[in-house]
Design brief:
Pol/histidinol_Pase-like, 5'-3' DNA exonuclease activity, PHP_domain, 3 domains, 32% helix, transmembrane helix, alpha+beta
């Protein structure tokens, strides 16, 4: 063979051998790739869930436990001075004047809270709020603690001695009753969240043994229906007859802007010895709360000891009452830190948006007064409407105060049945007919017409 001759062709493999190896590769390759892909997919999905769940739990905890208040109440000031005697007529003009027994005129707020329980104002801010709204005496009564009252009394005697008197108290609070234990100087055992009749009577007796007075607070509020439960806010509240029998000294006749007419008529009809007396209280928690009522009485001298001695004598009291409330209100500035954490709150809201929780009234003893309920929210799309439905057992719509448009929807949102019309998918102004959305929940009332313009 010469050097220029081409090499002989290489022998070819049999056709069946080549096709056999190729088919084996084709058969094995998809199985191997699919298995690896599935394994990799589920592995990374598991890692994603492992990382995501703690993040969602963390932001939910932040939402409920660690988010700062939207408002900075520590910056609130009260730069006005109201004289309620200048525009209000007292219920009994002969009580509480300077000429009454030659004493000092007292304008008392008998029920306020501080940051030592669930109030938003410090003890000193509460004093400043009281002076601005025309009070010269206050009973500081935090829930199940005497700390706020004692602190406010010390501040008043040190810095505001010529302007206001503070009497410390405790609002004995649980799932059956709220009562002011007035004049205490120490905390006492407050018992259980659902005390028996005997336990409540023991608290009254112990307060008297320590030299204090007992005033029953806001009976109308205590007996109002708790939203979503159709039972009282404080279930099994003692009757007025029981409370008088157990030895209470006073009743809160006016709480906020609510006048308790039934208690007034009942107590006024009694020939009780010693006589019961009435107090009023703003039940102050927030700085943007108006003043509604001032308890009028006279005391021999302008000291807390003199005022408390007068209260122990169970005096006849009068009131200045303005159900509209005072005009001057202070609003707190907003916190920048709140908005810095707002994205986390939005993530937590999305994570928890499929349910709502209701536990009723808080007992102020670490528990709640009503059964815990979970409301599962489902979204239903119907043509051009988006309707959010709260799933509950009882779906009755109660006739509320009059209102139109957005106000009517806001009122409906407060009811047991929650229909929030999120928004129309079309942007043009449209008349929404309730009967089209949910005929079974149609409202037949002058306050809620069958249809109204939502976007106006």
């Amino acid at each position: 063979m010469s050097l220029h001759d081409s090499p002989p062709p290489s022998p070819t493999l049999p056709a069946y051998t080549s096709s056999f190896k190729f088919s084996r590769v084709l058969m094995r390759l998809p199985r191997i790739s699919l298995s690896k892909c599935l394994i990799a997919f589920f592995y990374h999905l598991m890692l994603f869930c492992i990382c995501l769940i703690p993040i969602l739990v963390m932001v939910t905890i932040i939402k409920y436990k660690m988010i700062p208040d939207q408002y900075d109440y520590s910056q609130v000031t009260f730069d006005w001075k109201i004289d309620p005697r200048g525009y209000l007529i007292p219920m009994n003009g002969s009580i509480g004047t300077h000429n009454d027994s030659g004493g000092v005129e007292i304008l008392l707020d008998g029920h306020v809270h501080t940051t030592r329980s669930d109030g938003k104002l410090s003890p000193e801010q509460v004093i400043q709020w009281g002076i601005a709204n025309g009070y010269n005496a206050m009973i500081v009564s935090d829930h199940n603690t005497i700390k706020g009252g004692l602190e406010a009394k010390e501040i008043a005697e040190t810095k505001y001695n010529d302007s206001i008197i503070i009497i410390p108290a405790v609002e004995y609070s649980n799932c059956r009753i709220h009562m002011n234990l007035i004049g205490l100087t120490q905390d006492i055992p407050y018992g259980s969240a659902e005390p028996s009749d005997d336990e409540i009577k023991q608290i009254i007796d112990l307060t008297h043994e320590l030299g204090g007075l007992v005033s029953v607070n806001h009976i109308p509020w205590s007996n109002k229906t708790e939203s979503g439960y159709e039972v009282a806010t404080l279930p099994n509240h003692p009757t007025r007859e029981q409370l008088v029998e157990w030895g209470v000294d006073a009743f809160e006749l006016i709480n906020g802007g609510t006048f308790d007419m039934q208690t007034y008529l009942y107590v006024s009809s009694l020939s009780h010895s010693p006589p019961l007396f009435f107090l009023s209280g703003t039940d102050l928690h927030y700085p943007n709360t108006p003043a509604y009522a001032w308890t009028l009485l006279s005391t021999p001298s302008f000291t807390s000891e003199s005022l408390f001695t007068t209260l122990r004598s169970r005096p006849s009291t009068s009131f200045l009452f303005d159900p509209a409330g005072t005009r001057f209100i202070s609003y707190p500035p907003e916190r920048s830190s709140y908005y810095a954490l707002l994205p986390l709150m939005e993530l937590a809201d999305y994570w928890t948006s499929f349910y709502e929780e209701s536990r009723g009234m808080y007992s102020f003893m670490g528990s709640f007064c009503h059964e815990r309920k979970m409301y599962y929210v489902k979204t239903v799309e119907k043509k051009e409407y988006v309707v959010v439905e709260r799933v509950v057992t009882d779906r009755r719509i109660i006739d509320k105060e009059d209102g139109m448009g957005r106000e009517a929807l806001r009122k409906l949102a407060e009811l047991n049945v929650y229909y929030a019309l999120a928004r129309l998918l079309s942007s043009s102004p449209t008349t929404i007919a309730f009967s089209k959305l949910a005929p079974q929940f149609a409202v037949s009332s002058p306050a809620y017409p069958s249809s109204f313009n939502f976007f106006r």
